[in-house]
Amino acid sequence: MRMQELKQPSSIEKTQNFLADDIKALENLMLSCFAGVSEDLIQDIASHLLIKGKGKMIRPLLCMLTSKMLGYKGDAHIKLSASIELIHLATLLHDDVIDESDMRRSLPTANVIWGNKASILSGDFFFSKAFKLMVSAGSLASLDVLADTASKMVEGEVKQMLNLQNKTFISQEDYFQVIEYKTAKLFSAACKVAALISQEEYVDTLAEFGHLYGVIYQIQDDTADYFSNSTGKLRGKDFLEGKITLPLIMLQNKVNQTEREVIEKIFENERSQQDLDKVLSLMKKYEILNALEIKVGKLANQAKNLLNNIARSTQAKNLLTDLVNWLAHH
Amino acid sequence: MRMQELKQPSSIEKTQNFLADDIKALENLMLSCFAGVSEDLIQDIASHLLIKGKGKMIRPLLCMLTSKMLGYKGDAHIKLSASIELIHLATLLHDDVIDESDMRRSLPTANVIWGNKASILSGDFFFSKAFKLMVSAGSLASLDVLADTASKMVEGEVKQMLNLQNKTFISQEDYFQVIEYKTAKLFSAACKVAALISQEEYVDTLAEFGHLYGVIYQIQDDTADYFSNSTGKLRGKDFLEGKITLPLIMLQNKVNQTEREVIEKIFENERSQQDLDKVLSLMKKYEILNALEIKVGKLANQAKNLLNNIARSTQAKNLLTDLVNWLAHH
User: Fold this and answer.
1) At A26, which CATH number?
2) Rounded to 5°, angle at Cα B127 from B186 and B23
3) Residue-wise over B53-85: b if at least 16 C-beta within 10 A, else e?
4) What is the pLDDT of residues A255-287, one digit of tens each?
């Protein structure tokens, strides 16, 4: 992802400092889910994902920061955050099998190291532990949201898989439906459950905030596929796999008829590095990166405006605003 | 399975008649989980499993019958039963990918028809809907039991996968640990949650009853692999795949040194029909079927004795006893 090539931005660091105790508790809680497991294989995969290949845990950060913003004082937000991260990791394990991915977060994927069968089963294990944590949080309303979210995420993955198999050029509308389901729903749930356990009047506002955050997150990820030099993610990976994402859809909507046919032809067969270069030069010609930045900027403003509906003005709220800016500006 | 070759036994029919309204509600509830799904693929797979390839739904029958025995009057037992059946189906979808199975219940498996990717994702979908149903039952204690059960089932599958990869002869103890996790835990949970929502003083007794039922169920399934002519399951399937199950372990504990080495050699490489015939003739020589029947008979008596601890004597209790006899006697 493009964001990985930059120095860790200070808004993430500030958030991590602000939430230091919560993050420690979150990490211990996630590791404790695997402590009593009889099979070393599952423990090895857990270490690979939770320690060696540890990500920014952006979904838990949002859930915990939102909880703080709303003045939540208990510990259910830790349990729910851990649960959300484990759902996320479970889907990564299965997605990497489905997409036949070999690298993630600069490490070989679990399916490469331990095989597809081990990845399928450990994904199921992560998923079951996620539900166990949710139950321990004791909020049936949050359980309901997260069970629904898990279903929708699968629907999004199925949509994406079928789009890929059909080899047809998807519309912008189709694209936004896929990313709403496969990505934004879990971000939305992360913020929604924080409201459910603290101040229910903000449930809809924060669900929408999380949704926008997730949409921007996925657009940035898809943008990075064309415009990043990150080591963690191979540039052009989605392109070479045939995934149609926003940069390409925007391009397709701007090019002339001849160029459009060239692009469509590229997506009918296996794609090469030369094809990627051709598409990149068209993206430069039509200033697609600029168009994407404008789109992201609008969505970021919508997200920040939603936070203005929250009466409190706290450090947590300011950090949440900073996290929107951080995501939108690189 | 061996039981499929016989005429549907009357104790199952009697149970189905007794629970007719509940079964109808259960089926409608399970189908309703897939009604609003945007992807036809998931709906097609759901129809394949819930309608075309519908099984006996033995786990829901146990849950519903146990609830009735304890005088339960609400509808949470339907929701929990549906949830348990969906967890079971989710594991079948994933297991068939992992075992590379091509037939189940006399039909091609979902992975053969729709591919591994679709099976992985629809398994995840079934799993998420199972949790959604559990939440709707409103019993946090039952949710906790079922989340734990789901984890243990995965541990059992991992154990089995590793045993298979290691190609070593497992002990009877290892065998019982695998079947406890991969099979008996869900049967146990089916009976345990029925007690949790109705009469908590019977939780342990019924968890143990369900456990024994599941152990017998798996032994009968493993026995059928050697002694059945069922069309639904290819005889010798587990044997040819290299799965070491109780009939073979019992045989290995009775044969002489020369025979033991022959059997071990057979399991070092791919197995043929001739190998199966050789093992079957040894099983005949050492009366393994008889030894299995004695083992199952003992477990069935333990299970029925547990029911004697339940003060009530109702039709549901009698049917539950009949279901033990039905399972044990063919």
Assistant:
1) 1.10.600.10
2) 65
3) bebebbbbbbbbbbbbbbebeeebbbbbbbbbb
4) 999 999 999 999 888 999 999 999 999 999 999
Asked if the Cβ–Cβ distance from B125 to A97 is below 8 Å, we say no
Asked if residue A1 has pLDDT above 60, the reply is no
pLDDT of residue B322: 96
- Decide if pLDDT at A9 tops 60: no
Find residues 40-79 of chain B whose CB sits inside 8 Å of chain A. 41-42
- pLDDT tens, B174-209? 999 999 999 999 999 999 999 999 999 999 999 999
Contact at CB, A118 and B161, closer than 8 angstroms = yes
**Residue A120 contacts B where some CB pair is shorter than 8 Å:** yes
Q: Is residue A233 part of a domain?
A: yes
Chain B residues within an 8 Å CB radius of A161: 117-118, 121
Mean pLDDT of B298-317: 92
Residue A58 β-bridge partners: none
- The minimal CB distance from B140 to the residues A135, A147, A162 is found for A135
Q: Looking at the domain assignment, is residue B2 inside a domain?
A: no
Q: Give the domain range for residue A115.
A: 7-328
User: Which chain A residue lies closest to B130 (C-alpha atoms)?
Assistant: A147
Cα-flanking dihedrals φ and ψ of residue A108, to 5°? -60, 145
> Is any Cβ of chain B less than 8 angstroms from the Cβ of A180?
no
What ipTM did this prediction achieve? Answer: 0.93
Residue B317 lies in a domain: yes
Query: Is the minimum CB–CB distance between B285 and chain A shorter than 8 Å?
Result: no
Number of domains in chain B: 1
d(CA A21, CA B216): 49
Three-state secondary structure string covering B89-155: HHHHHHHHHHCCCCEECCEECHHHHHCHHHHHHHHHHHHHHHHHHHHHHCCHHHHHHHHHHHHHHHH
Tell me what the mean pLDDT of segment A56-72 comes to. 96
Nearest-neighbour CA in chain A from B139: distance (Å): 9
In whole angstroms, give the CA distance from residue B325 to residue B330.
9
CB-closest option in A42, A158, A159 to B158:
A42
Q: What's the Cα-to-Cα distance from A41 to each of A240, B28, B148, rounded to whole Å?
A: 32, 39, 18
Say yes or no: B103 contacts chain A, CB-CB below 8 A: no
Query: Is there a domain that residue B122 lies in?
Result: yes
